[in-house]
Amino acid sequence: MGEHDEHATVQYCVIDRFEGDWAVMEWNRVVFNFPRRLLPGGAQEGDVIRIVSEVDAARTADRRQRVRQLEEKLFRE
């Protein structure tokens, strides 16, 4: 997967059609709505979209730290 985490997953979806701000996508015979604004520019009906999902460990750690700080602040008061 090159630049991606070894635990990343790659899935391929097809854009079936657009409905307003949504792309209606198909993946393994499952149809779902996906925000059109998150698609690459120029994506069209019938295009195959590669979706890579991976955990961003650094951002996860930052978020958990912020939550801990908020919890500490709330429970101190």
Please describe the topology of this protein.
Blueprint: E1 9-19, E2 22-27, E3 30-35, E4 48-53, H1 57-76
Please give the number of β-strands: 4
The domain count comes to 1
The proportion of residues forming helix, as a percent range, comes to 25-40%
Name the helix and strand elements from N-terminus to C-terminus, one letter apiece: EEEEH
Q: Which class of secondary structure composition applies to the elements?
A: alpha+beta
The profile of the biggest β sheet is: 4 strands, antiparallel
Low-confidence stretches: none
CATH names the topology as OB fold (Dihydrolipoamide Acetyltransferase, E2P)
**Order of strands across the main sheet:** 3-2-1-4
CATH architecture: Beta Barrel
| Rg from Cα | 18 Å
The proportion of residues in beta strands is 35-45%
**Mean of residue pLDDT?**
93
- Tally of individual helices: 1
Alpha-carbon distance between the two ends: 48 Å
Name the shape in a single word. elongated
The CATH class assignment is Mainly Beta
